[in-house]
Amino acid sequence: xxxxxxxxxxxxxxxxxxxxxxxxxxxxxxxxxxxxxxxxxxxxxxxxxxxxxxxxxxxxxxxxxxxxxxxxxxxxxxxxxxxxxxxxxxxxxxxxxxxxxxxxxxxxxxxxxxxxxxxxxxxxxxxxxxxxxxxxxxxxxxxxxxxxxxxxxxxxxxxxxxxxxxxxxxxxxxxxxxxxxxxxxxxxxxxxxxxxxxxxxxxxxxxxxxxxxxxxxxxxxxxxxxxxxxxxxxxxxxxxxxxxxxxxxxxxxxxxxxxxxxxxxxxxxxxxxxxxxxxxxxxxxxxxxxxxxxxxxxxxxxxxxxxxxxxxxxxxxxxxxxxxxxxxxxxxxxxxxxxxxxxxxxxxxxxxxxxxxxxxxxxxxxxxxxxxxxxxxxxxxxxxxxxxxxxxxxxx
Amino acid sequence: xxxxxxxxxxxxxxxxxxxxxxxxxxxxxxxxxxxxxxxxxxxxxxxxxxxxxxxxxxxxxxxxxxxxxxxxxxxxxxxxxxxxxxxxxxxxxxxxxxxxxxxxxxxxxxxxxxxxxxxxxxxxxxxxxxxxxxxxxxxxxxxxxxxxxxxxxxxxxxxxxxxxxxxxxxxxxxxxxxxxxxxxxxxxxxxxxxxxxxxxxxxxxxxxxxxxxxxxxxxxxxxxxxxxxxxxxxxxxxxxxxxxxxxxxxxxxxxxxxxxxxxxxxxxxxxxxxxxxxxxxxxxxxxxxxxxxxxxxxxxxxxxxxxxxxxxxxxxxxxxxxxxxxxxxxxxxxxxxxxxxxxxxxxxxxxxxxxxxxxxxxxxxxxxxxxxxxxxxxxxxxxxxxxxxxxxxxxx
Lengths: 396, 396
Prior knowledge:
The structure holds two protein chains of two kinds. By secondary structure, chain A is mostly helical. Chain A contains 18 helices and two strands. In chain A, strands 1-2 form a two-stranded antiparallel sheet. Chain A starts with a helix and ends with a helix. Chain B is built from 16 helices and no strands. Chain B has helices at residues 13-49, 54-76, 81-107, 110-113, 115-124, 129-149, 164-218, 224-242, 249-257, 263-269, 275-282, 291-301, 328-343, 354-362, 366-369, 372-393. Classes of the chains: A mainly alpha, B mainly alpha. Chains A and B meet through α2, α5, α7, α8 and α9 of A and α1, α4, α5, α7 and α8 of B.
């Protein structure tokens, strides 16, 4: 229970699949309780139900719940989600046929709540739409039974029920669309930034490789003591899962061997075993001689120790000359410095993969007029540059 | 041992998250108010249809429009818009429930009782912890008070007893599930804000790391003198071409002097410039300020960065040592390589002590990037890990 609460509290650190799994577990727990409490009671209270129904219905719900639980265990979380929704819709259909109509009608809201809980727009549109449609029809057909003793008109009563249910569905649909729009925008920006970050890290790694080469030092992945340490640690850790340590020790050797190979060639090699290809593909992410997830995480980790005491200011994440400077002369000077930087500093990989290329005037012009560059300079500055580009080329 | 996942979070994040939150809060405020405007028309339609007298109609309509006017006022007020809109959000949350309760007490029918769910749906659009708790509390207590104090509202034409017990149970389920759903959704929202804010800060730090590594390799600083000499010549020719007085030379001289003079000396020498003007000019400086160099680095790496739709919300985008589908051996090897790399001296990061590593891995997001079983084994046996590394890597 403590672990479950802890996982709910820290959902932002879980992957999408882990969050979905957590949601299915919670809904299944609720459904188990709901089925356990309501179905036997309904079966006893509803004398109009036939004996066969009293047997078939509980078995039907038990099967649905069992499928949900098995699919969760097998980690087919999306399938489990669908089955949990079918269970809830099934319960709603079963209960609206019961004795109290208001209690039945409120179940439509509970069903929608379960579907909303999963926060999946397509699922919500399809299942939520079906539940709302059925609920509206139910309100129309059972208008007389759903009417309160203090209601003045059956028509107004039915219309109110329908508007409330449809309104609830539509408002949450708007919320879904809004959330999706916001998160898509944020995620798009995040993925783009992630790629730019990887470029910085590509350069950091290449600088380090060139530095190691220049110092004639041995790269860490070729260091035998380092290799032995990894092997010992991996075997030790693996002992908590299985006694045999030979397989993992062999895989550690394979891991270091991959540093001397082109992974694509290993993966495409017809003579290599399937197991080796799978391991090579999975280990690709953690190589030390290439910009990999592992090297990126190492650089990210080391940034924890940079600018620790620096306060945030409003221009910290601004890179647009227009936003950073107020006067035209400052903006012009900034544009000239930017040109000079790109024209004289080594900022690109050369054709051999070393950091050794400087952008030429034409390449900079191409950059300046590109759409991506509006993040740095405005149209006005581009026009100024184009009008005076011969001076930029000659004097900067 | 208590875990503090924010202990190693970049200190600059909160301010930027507030900036992101404000952008979306503005949009949500507009949407909620548009909904309230629409709902007020639906209410008016029912009031007219039910021949409600004007003196009963006016207060409820006034309530809706007062809320909208309050929101417009808070929205238009410029100073501290973030907190103003939050106040407007709480007022709206309470206002919507007050309007709903007034309607329920006025009509006293079971159908209008479901408008409480609409009130919840409208306020859920804000996706804010405090608004969510306020809304859940108001929904629950309003429902409970109405069910216990005004049970005749729930008496249906064909039913002798209203079965409040069932409705209370459903209300509890409804509130619990929606609160949990909102909680997880808000956590996801926080996650996205956090990710974006973190990557913005990470970009700044990664650029600084790249600059640091480049300096280690080349053993050279950026030659600012070369820049200022070119700028002087360039601006001189440019001024001639534009037939204007050279308004740039003073500013370039400020940049040159800033390397050898203190800020107060600069203010004294260039007394025609204000403190703010000099501060802005200094943003162009290349040796003591890093802004222009960072613009140059970012500009040189931001080309050809395209985001594929498949990459969005893809878990592969999140770097970790626990990718789904990876064999346990891979998760073990990747973690021990990462751990050992932290223990050894690198040009860009000193070797960390066992205490530092354990503390960071436990109290940061890295805890969630490592397989749960593996990180727990490490935390329980970190001294053994430390001994293995020290024993083998001795002298390295």
